[in-house]
Automatic annotation (TrEMBL):
UniProt entry tagged with the keyword Nucleotide-binding: yes
A GO CC term attached to the entry: cytoplasm
Pfam families attached to this UniProt entry: AA_kinase (PF00696)
Gene name per UniProt: pyrH
Similarity annotation: Belongs to the UMP kinase family.
Protein name: Uridylate kinase
List of residues binding UMP: 55, 75, 136-143
Record keyword Cytoplasm present: yes
Function per UniProt: Catalyzes the reversible phosphorylation of UMP to UDP.
GO MF term (any one): ATP binding
Subunit structure: Homohexamer.
Sorted UniProt keywords: Allosteric enzyme, ATP-binding, Cytoplasm, Kinase, Nucleotide-binding, Pyrimidine biosynthesis, Transferase
Activity regulation behaviour: Allosterically activated by GTP. Inhibited by UTP.
Length: 241
């Protein structure tokens, strides 16, 4: 799948992946497992990794908007939630001996660097894991869009979309509600868009298609899966290209 040519990737982690089985907040055991997976591929496969984090385990802007809040305000709250997750992941990575930098699209100089493309690339070249928070810094976008955009900006070779809750790829339907749903090993960008497959938001899919960025959708909460994807194991996840 990876053709062993992906020496720089963007790993997209949803906020819910930080919550573990409790479904909300930050579960320390889960975050440590995710960090160990990242350290393994960074140090043993020497793959440059930038991580884009979501914030849905703490706050989702669409939920706030649905409850009557101003959508832009609610999304800005969600951007702050991503920074909390980024700082938590940074702490565990550095406990494991992995140098990191947190860069945020929302400026908060006391706790994170501003996102600067050339600086992010330099950190990666020095072997640091770059954790990207704050989304795009603008409301009305999910964190899928900055994952795609940052991947193009830092010249990554693929976007790795980490799922959770036992979903291990792209299915013909929601496997939780449709027992006949089957997993797809590979699918095109246009199929994802035309069939409404639940991969990433349409904006990010279109951007990846326009920039020839492959996407791998896989279960990041299964130990060893991240390494297997980067080792080219075709049995893990779904390749979108």
């Amino acid at each position: 799948m990876a053709e062993q040519s992906w020496n720089r990737v963007v790993l997209k982690l949803s906020g819910e992946a930080f919550a573990g089985s409790q479904g909300y907040g930050i579960d320390g055991t889960t975050v440590r497992m995710l960090a160990e997976e990242i350290v393994d591929v960074r140090q043993n496969l020497e793959v440059d990794i930038a991580v884009v984090v979501g914030g849905g385990n703490i706050w989702r802007g669409q939920v706030g908007a649905g409850a009557g809040m101003d959508r832009a305000q609610a999304d800005q709250m969600g951007m702050l939630a991503t920074v909390i997750n980024a700082l938590g992941l940074q702490d565990v990575l550095e406990q494991l001996g992995q140098p990191t930098r947190v860069q945020s699209a929302v400026h908060m100089a006391q706790i994170a660097e501003p996102y600067i493309r050339r600086r992010a690339i330099r950190h990666l070249e020095k072997g640091r894991v770059v954790i990207l928070a704050g989304g795009l810094g603008s409301p009305f976008f999910t964190t899928d869009t900055p994952a795609a955009l940052r991947a193009a900006e830092i010249e990554a070779h693929a976007v790795l979309k980490g799922t959770h809750s036992g979903i291990d790829g792209v299915y013909t339907a929601d496997p939780k509600v449709d027992a006949s749903a089957t997993k797809l090993d590979q699918v095109t960008y246009m199929d994802v868009l035309n069939r409404g497959l639940n991969v990433m938001d349409p904006t990010s899919i279109t951007f990846c298609m326009d920039n020839s960025l492959p996407i791998v959708v896989f279960d990041v909460t299964t130990p060893g899966n991240l390494r297997r994807v980067l080792d080219g194991d075709r049995g893990v996840g779904t390749l979108v290209r």
